[in-house]
Amino acid sequence: MNKVEDLLERTCKNMIRTILCCLSFAYKGTIYRVGPMPTLQVVRVTSGIRGKDFDEIKWGLPAASDYNPPGKSWKEYRDRPDRPLEAMGWCVEKQKSWTAENPYEDVRSVAKQLRGEIEDFYHMEPVLVRKSDLYGSCLDALPYPHDWQGSPIWQDTEYVVVAVIKIHFRPYTIRKDDQSTRVIRELSRSLGTEILTVQLRETLLKAQKEFARQRLQSCELLAHELRNTLIKFAFVISAVNAQLGILRREWEAQLKIAFPLIPWREAILQQLQVLLSRGMGSLNGNEELVNISRKLFADQEEMKTVCLLPAQYQQWLAFKIVPKWEQLFSRTSVFDNDREEIKHLLAHLEDAIHKVTDDELIARISHLPQDLCLQWVRVAHVYFTADKLDVVEETIQLLSRPELPIGNRHQMIKVLRSLKALVELVPEMEEKADRIIYSLRFSGVGEPDGLESLDDLSACPLF
Hints:
By secondary structure, this protein is an alpha+beta fold. 54% of the residues lie in helices and 10% in strands.
């Protein structure tokens, strides 16, 4: 195994470890590398399965799989009418995830189709990277793969699939578009950045073979340190904020217990969805208004499920929800009878957004200690950045309180302690990267022939 392959495997292990740490119902993870075009060879990089000890992960490729090295080419796993459908083919061609929430009805279970065996519960997520990041501006001549009918795929999208993440879950603990799949989707973006960095390192090494050993070693260190910095900022920050989002969701649940008669965000949005659905059937095929209504329905549904800060909800309402309702009011009379009720609901929605941090309301909570409530609100409603490390420590202190009514708080503490250690390394990594960049900039060594600067790497095909 060469250095680049070893770096890729360690990168994949870090991602699998993070996902298994964040998702308590997940017990196994596998990452497959996809590329280059047009063959799109899919090769299983590594698999990790949780051991008896929660923190123990066993690594390797012990199970027999068609995707073990050398893997399968695009023509072997793409959709065709004369062979079983594979979830891998769907993820690669459609650039969309696949969730086997009920293996008994999974139309893309190869084992079920071939041998009648039921596979387990899993979620597969494609890892996307922008074409321009991989190939620069030379996109017209890309050798796109074709589906079984001969039509090129990916031609009309700005992304390519560079990897696929597969996470296995305990029975009936995973559903399409639930919180676990959203966490995997967010982390897949970080993995795309990491893989892109790995490919950048590989290209850089090939381009500078004729240069001095010291220069080459410095470039290797630069790629390594930049990769670490990207990892810290790309997924550690978002992972911490994801934990704070869980705290906000749990806090809202406690408010509903304390004040069941107050109309909260989800209930108001559900009423708006009912009124919108009722009016959509009377738009008489006006395609433009139908499209606005569908987008509004999707935005309201998403606002109902995500757990954001009040300021973020306020922006969502101001820029996504209210303008679309105003468009409908001004261009059709379908909603005239419900207009006042809708405006009333929108006003209540804005009020409900800020009620979660209302001091007077918090003071009336009787089923929890008052100091716990104040600490919970203060910690949960912060947007974490690298300069707010004290927020992580205070969150850990909050989760350590036995009276906190959160079932998975001990697991959250483990996750946050791991993430805190990574965040603390960011300044040191930045300092090392700055020193290396300074050394390269003033080393007095010329650039390789045909490569004027590191920026020109964007024009080199990496797959």
